[in-house]
Description:
With 334 residues, this protein is of the alpha+beta class. It has helices spanning 13-32, 34-44, 47-59, 105-115, 132-140, 182-193, 270-284, 299-307, and strands spanning 4-7, 64-71, 74-83, 88-96, 122-127, 144-149, 162-168, 175-176, 220-221, 224-225, 229-234, 240-250, 253-261, 289-295, 311-318, 326-333. The protein has two domains: 4-168, Gcn5-related N-acetyltransferase (GNAT) (Aminopeptidase), CATH 3.40.630; 175-333, Gcn5-related N-acetyltransferase (GNAT) (Aminopeptidase). It is elongated.
Amino acid sequence: MTPILRPATLHDIPALREMLVATWHATYDATLGVEKVNAIAASWHSPEKLSAECDAALAEPEANAMLVAEAGGRIIGTASAHFLPDSFLELARLYILPECQRTGLGKALLAASIARFPKARTARLEVEPRNAGAIAFYARQGFFAVGGGKACGGDVKASVEHLIMEADLPLLALRPAEDRDAQDLFGLLTLCFAEYPGCYTDPHDDMPDLVRPGHWPERAKNGQKLGGEFLVLEDATGRVCACVAVDFPAPGIAELHRLYVRPDCRRRGIAEALVRRIERIAEAAAAGRVILWSDTRFIGAHRLYARLGYVQGRERRPLGDISNSEEFDFTKKL
């Protein structure tokens, strides 16, 4: 039975609390201990606290959300979020009954929570450092660890360590490029290049990296592996509709490559989110700056880079390719 995602009501509180307590024991008994889990559940998941959160979500839906997933009249999952004045979206709670996990429900609840706050630019959450499954799940959705502490949820008395993770919005379900994506990638670039007279795709001479995109991290220069990642975004039909890549040509430097978004998928914040993702990857690799080269004809891309804090340099390099391309250099300090 397909779960129904809907706003929680006060009528749901007893069943919601039961689900939360069961999930907490299944998740944290082994690491925090049964006694501590009982104490935290009595405080964080008390009927009074849950009712107050539900009231706030119903009274101010522009600032708070409390969702439940229901299947067969049973509450099997929940998510809560709060929109903060600085455009941060705080994801306060996301739990699924153990037997209902790994079904896509967590991803659906996360997406439904975020969709309620279209003005949010960054999502933030806290997760227990030993909850490897949750950390891996959030990482797949585009979250990166940015810090931590010893008072999860601001509860000093409970003294639960936490990892802080953030993701730029909109969330993009990116995946590593595979060699099978080559045809889609050439099609994507051909569509993008068609907007610029005299700009062509030549896969074998000008773009050998696109012939085997799944081997991107293995590329080398002067005998040194460049590493990095090549990420793609699929549309609803499974076709690649956007891509971006990064490598590390020198210590402390990340280079952004292959930022393309199919024309019909633009003006949704995808390009900006792709650049932000690369910056997160660069920061995680201890890079102090991101550099890139962009065709002199790609004026729209130059505006994006400038808005995101990239500074155009004075260099202009010819590529000697089939399109007679010349490129400007851009740099951003992280």
